[in-house]
Amino acid sequence: MFDWLEFDQKTKKGFEEQMEQVKEVMARYIEKNSQIRELAIYDKPDQETLDKIIGWDIPAKGREVRDISNELIDNVFEKAMVLQHPRFFSFVSTAVSPYSVAGSLLSDIYNVNAGSWELAPGAGLIEEKLIKWMGGLAGYDGDNIGGIFLSGASMANMSALVAARDSRLSPEEFPEGVVYFSDQTHSSVEKGLRIIGFREDQAVKIPTDDEFKVRVDLMEEAIERDLAAGKKPFAIVGNLGTTNTGTIDPLEKLGEMAKKYDLWFHVDGAFGGSILVSPIRRNLAKGISMSDSFSWDTHKWLMQVYSCSSLIVKDKSNLFKSFTEHPEYLADVSSSEHGDGWDLGPEMSRPARAIKLWYTLQATGTDLLEELIEYSFYNASLVEKELSKRPNWKIISHSSCGTVNFRYEPEGMSEEDVDVLTDKISKAIIGSGFAFIVTTTLKGHKTLRMCTINANTTEEDIRKTVELLDELAKRESNAFTG
Ligand SMILES: Cc1ncc(COP(=O)(O)O)c(C=O)c1O
In the predicted model, is pLDDT for residue 141 greater than 90? Predict the structure, then answer.
């Protein structure tokens, strides 16, 4: 018999023994997770480590799992940015729920293929239930709510644009189609349009106001101008939580405009979609019910491991129209009654991504997630409050969806010099190892950006980080001006 599980023929290590060693990795994970605060935020791999990895071979004979795990943990995983660290304030990073890890692990162990209903009916039902729950939170109603879990909002936004294109344009009209969105919209929208074949001039970026919200009046002017020129405006994208500033566009106004011009209205809720779980904050997303689709990354604010994103549409027939194929080899495992994942999006085989979110929701309940959202908003306001106590700090974008942007602007320093100083402050705080804060650029100038959505971040973390920022800003500014 070909006993492939006894893969180390030399030591005769068998499956069970190897799996015992896998359990050691799990034990180590549980221990580490409780000590995440103690980890270096970024223990960047040195050249020696990188050379070691470059030198690794793919062996002809199997090896002990313990050795493989240890070398991966030491050289790969613990030499990467700890985005889950409570003082990692960059990008849109959060603590990961161990329940999400458990749900993900379970899905991996069973390796169900959620490509079609028939392949994993229970997973299909759970996914459908979650999609309807998410749509319901956005105010969608009716039996046609549908959607799909995808790898990330990049895929979700692109899939929405495919559905938008196919619902509003005939293939002959594709070259004239135009989509409109703010200059703060995530690059995945532009990238998605490029991938699906649109030219750069078919993606129109509309300026934003002082609060980084899209200028709806300018969007309307652009649409009118394009219509008069014989083009085919077919979609607008609104933001529920921009990456830079956590800004929420005036979704209601965008919804009205979409209706007036018969445009598909997509909301990028990759980041801010999670405020929908909070009855206190949900109102900020008013108008999302008027959209045709929205994306929501639960691997952002809702503490899911990658990758757990979703696209929710008001009428799932639009997804079926764009994504259905009927190959003969899948006929026996396809279901016209329920609809299959592979007919709702671009993927065929795919993991049951919804399971980890389901697992987390069951283990924590929604009350806790509501509290998390509130806590994140609170922590971002605390950043503002602490900065306002100190001279020279200027808030560039007020806290929104747990995100705040600011600069240190000593009197008399030019905007350009402040840009350079901002970079130096960011590098200094990262170099200190205490907190991780990178820059972004708003209206042409560098800012420091903090996103405070990590459930493990304490008020003390925020206070000490601002204190250190202030110290470093003074130091860097003195060094800079000489
Ligand atoms: C607003 C927004 N949209 C889309 C994306 C892309 O999401 P993903 O990285 O899951 O593809 C991001 C990622 O940060 C985002 O912040």
Answer: yes
Neighbouring C-beta atoms of residue 224, cutoff 10 Å: 12
Question: Cα–Cα distance between 467 and 344 in angstroms, integer?
Answer: 49
How far apart are the C-alpha atoms of 255 and 289, rounded to whole Å? 8
- pLDDT tens per residue across span 341-369: 999 999 999 999 999 999 999 999 999 99
DSSP per residue, 288-324? GGG-SEEEEETTTTT-PPS--EEEEES-THHHHHHH-
Task: Tell which phi-psi region holds residue 241, choosing left (phi > 0), alpha (psi between -120 and 50) or beta.
Answer: left
Residue 207 DSSP symbol: P
Q: Where are the alpha helices (DSSP H) in 178-281?
A: 187-195, 216-228, 251-261
Q: Please report, as a single letter, which amino acid is at residue 334.
A: S
CA atoms of 289 and 292, how far apart (whole Å): 8
- Token match 């929604």: residue? 366
Question: Would you state the pLDDT for residue 3?
Answer: 66
Mean pLDDT of 265-287: 98
Averaged pLDDT score across all residues of the chain: 95
Q: What is the mean pLDDT of residues 71-87?
A: 96
Q: What does the pLDDT read at residue 286?
A: 98
* CB of 156 closer than 6 angstroms to any ligand 1 atom: no
Ligand 1 center from residue 278 Cα (angstroms): 21
Mutate to test the pocket of ligand 1, among 181, 188, 449 (most ligand atoms within 8 A of CB): 188
pLDDT band at 4 (very low <50, low <70, confident <90, very high): low
- Of 91, 56, 59, give the one whose Cα is nearest residue 76: 56
Amino acid letter, residue 159: S
Residues in the chain: 482
How many beta carbons lie within 10 A of that of residue 337, not counting itself? 6
Q: Is 186 near ligand 1, meaning CB less than 6 Å away?
A: yes
Q: What does the alpha-carbon distance between residue 390 and residue 411 come to, in Å, rounded to a whole number?
A: 14
